[in-house]
Amino acid sequence: MKTILHKANTRGHANHGWLDSFHTFSFASYHDPQKIHFGALRVLNDDTVAGGMGFGTHPHDNMEIISIPTSGDLEHFDSMGNKQVIRQGDVQVMSAGTGIQHGEKNKNHDKPVKFFQIWVFPNEKNVTPRYDQKSFSDSDKQNKLLTVVSPIGTNDGGVQIHQDAWFSLGKLDKGFATVYELKNKSNGVYAFVFEGDVTINGEHLSRRDGLGITNADKLEIKADSTSEILLMEVPMLN
Does the global pTM surpass 0.90? Predict the structure, then answer.
């Protein structure tokens, strides 16, 4: 087993006033040659957008873009004709493929919206752009690892992406322990702690810490406090 630990306080940070963003991997003006990506996982941004503000229309192509709100309401619009609001409990994916234009803004003027935006390299380029969104209740994630993202063509219940990747969310009570078995033994897993403290394969993680694990076929997870975690199982690119 090999691990790489990214402590929360080592992330890149950009505060634009309307947008406060922390970058686990190199993004925009933040560049760390040791933190470009973890396998197919390219971007993990922890964003807070002020009331009424947002990202204007901008292009993407050949990237799988996943958004996971943790509080507030994020309004999405795109060149495919989608106009949706995503909220806590929702998971959204856009397969940018041959190219899309999209924008996002805080639907509310009186409170911020907080969300994670995650980019994954696709396993096939220039696919037809697509959009998917699903809601998952807290009870669905209580003391279990719920699949919320899965590969196109599987029936695991998550939003689907063009990659051999699975994302799982768990809300864990203090003292709860579980084991995550990799779907594909050649993949790696990047574990990220939304809230709380957990121990994964002997490594202690706190709020907003990230841990990349390779050359392991399972993860032993214990919640050291009431916690919420995200596991991202992705191929390790050459």
Answer: yes
